[in-house]
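Q: What does the assembled structure look like for these inputs?
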Amino acid sequence: MASRISAVSIVEAVASDLRVRIFSGELVSSQALTETDIASSYEVARPTAKAAIEKLVAEGLLVRGVHKTARVADLGPESVRDIYLARAYLESEVLRRLAAGRTVPAAAVQANRDIAALKTGAPLDVVEPDMRFHTSLIDALGNERISKMYSSLVAEVRLCMSRVQSLHLLDTALIQAEHQKLLELIEAGQGEDAARLLDQHLGRARERLVAAMGGEAGPEAELPSSLVGE
Amino acid sequence: MASRISAVSIVEAVASDLRVRIFSGELVSSQALTETDIASSYEVARPTAKAAIEKLVAEGLLVRGVHKTARVADLGPESVRDIYLARAYLESEVLRRLAAGRTVPAAAVQANRDIAALKTGAPLDVVEPDMRFHTSLIDALGNERISKMYSSLVAEVRLCMSRVQSLHLLDTALIQAEHQKLLELIEAGQGEDAARLLDQHLGRARERLVAAMGGEAGPEAELPSSLVGE
DNA sequence: AGCAAACCAATTGTCTAACAAGTACACATG
DNA sequence: CATGTGTACTTGTTAGACAATTGGTTTGCT
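A:
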């Protein structure tokens, strides 16, 4: 069905489209993606489809063993915890750095403005600007490696999000308010407070995601959420 | 020259051998690696060589633009700073966690014992157990994502090391002593102290590496070397 | 002679076709 | 019912070929 695409690289174009389809939920978890199927649906050769698949496997969006068909990754609650812990490690340190220089990234401000702008629409609409907000903070550090690491984490988060269709659990107003507070703390140079708020922000998102995925909340679910009012 | 190799995957075998040759310094920075050359030297088909190259490009060991020959990555001082900053972000938080649980990884103890054992030999010999020490700490956390991130950083560090042949700047005894101190601080549950010592440990290694690389002729040789002040 | 444009060799991107090897599931058999 | 076998499907790898791009070289014009 997907028509022939051509861009800078056919492999990249195919991988990019598959990525979108995975994030949109069109391709669900554990769905099989054979090389020949992809090759025929995009009207490309099998090696091209193979390369695109391997790209996504390297990104963690697909999984496959030797001589086995690639499948959309099925991330469990423990994976979500790993991902969010890694996010917290990177992002909290970045916040301390930004606060030390009182650097408020313009892109992050804009991203949060976009979140505030969307009052309605599908619940998944908040995912993109939310990820953009956090990515903007990371990118403001100007560290290529850290940005790349964070990108891979964001990709996995989006994969998790696509699994959870009942996203009324995403409180857009709360997300926007906490982002705003983060920016203010950075501007005030209060790095420790910003890092602490971020930990709560990510921790709550993580627990809601784990809960929505049907996973049992872990033993460390007892974070006092009342701290957020602050 | 390189004889035919066969393992679980030919692509992985070729990539693995190239990796060793890069780390050993046999393949120097900016050296061109054409697909046909690799294919003929390993007696594999060109697509296989291509896949191996792309694997190493994804790892950051090789770089290449579209339609251009792959080359061994040439990391400058700013890359070294990025890499070591990322290492510090991840590893210092991991140390705090390990100290909180008073978890002293047996593999790290063994790795440091190996460093103590080698009193002589080529200066590059200390690189492997040193990296193993740090990787053991990270792996003890049991977080798959963080371990993978750290692996990519280690690979780039080893690439830098291979560029610096005059490694008398590596003080084996000092490295071993600081590692020992780190383990003791973890055992004592003093996470903050361990994190602080690690920052110094990594900071010193970074500055030595930058200084050693700065003396050589690099593309960014014209920037004031006084920035490296130690 | 000097500079610019066209040409050419080398390399990569992609495709087609094919065979080998491994996996998974159904089927037959004890 | 359990177990072994076999067959279809899928992936791993190869060979050869052609298009597209890059970079250097050569040619042509002033």
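The domain at 10-72 of chain B is CATH 1.10.10.10 (Arc Repressor Mutant, subunit A).
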